[in-house]
């Protein structure tokens, strides 16, 4: 790579500074003009906020006045509230007529989302679509709160409304009026105005001179816009009728509303000054760096033929050796770090290949790799043990990521120290987050690795139990004599851990001690499950005794977790099949609890 000349270095240093100063002055000028523009925009925002508030007040007051008049004069509302039956008219016709009136009013005033009338005497609610009990009404909580207290004087803040409990929620603001107005209240009328309608109304009034418009209720909750809007030059208008606020202003950080009026003469003059300054810097830099570049060229030419004369380079360019030495140190440190990381990666990769059987590893490959990792290569017998942290989700929830790593380091250290006391060589790696895989090996034929591993693992388990807040379950595979059989021992240790669900936690499970209880007595278990399902269907209390018998059977043998899951899923299936013939309430009750039963089968640790 070609080295930059001193002329290029100084030019690349001074020109950016020169341009930075120029652009800073331009920025100051822009900000001054921007501030003046914002002041003008703030005035426009204030006028616009008043206009929006007046429009909202006018629309909502019209709705208020119309319904106030209806409450005073409409005989149907009085008949509904007082339940006047002496008129001889069907209550169905009265309700239908009121519902049609509500629909007509909704058409006349597009902002209206819904209307309903509440009768205190029997807690009935009449809407434009249905009449129902308050308990079945989607706005039950709001209606009952009004029935037990005073109606709000003005429009409510933003709230959620729905006609039925299964309908989606809609954001509305509401006006509540007790009826009749001048006598003892027999109920109330609620007019809901759609927040989306108010938002659409404000959007129609929006102009390009306003960066953002927000409407907020008395509690500061956003009706239009966002509570977190970062507005600059904000104008605020508050309504004495609705107790709402309208806020308008520029969106923070934007250049909206900034008017920049430049005269072409000033622009040309500015560019001319920048050009002259650039030419001046280039000329002066060239004049004073030419001698330096000539010296550097001579030093480079000389160093090619006389590499021992590095001192001359130092005198001509004092920072040369300092820079070169720092660079060499940096490269050496980088190489050391990369080598260490690569060694750790290769060590774990080789261990995975060994226990996983991904490639054939003979004695020569074993000696070569263990020598590279600083380990002894001798072995007579080998075996795999896997330490599984019990209740691992709770372990993750109780400790931070750093504390988890610290505890795992402690467990690894305990394994190494305990093995060293018993003169057993170990190689351990965390191949999974909750499992530490350990390769045990010994060169001594007596007393044998099989008995040594069992004692060693139990000592490790007891130490963790006594000194840490969590326990481990250890699965042990068979002892082998050949490297090619290590994957089999690893698979056996993994399979031994699958019996943890029936055997329990905080114990040693050797593969040689396990048996497949499910396969041995599968017919007996399936017959027992069918009997449980039949008793459950007939509501015979014997199903509990039979279920306890099934659990006792599973406890009496070591079961694979998947066998236990399959057996219990088969039981749930048969009970569901039998319950399906029962009346609907029984089926509904069973359908409600079935997902919980299935969820337990996914998450349980032990029987």
From TrEMBL:
It comes from Paenibacillus sepulcri. It holds the Pfam family GGDEF_2. The keyword Transmembrane applies. The chain crosses the membrane at residues 12-33, 265-284. The lineage of its organism: Bacteria, Bacillati, Bacillota, Bacilli, Bacillales. Residues 433-498 form the CdaR GGDEF-like domain. The keyword Membrane applies. Keywords: Membrane, Transmembrane, Transmembrane helix. This is CdaR GGDEF-like domain-containing protein. InterPro entries: CdaR_GGDEF.
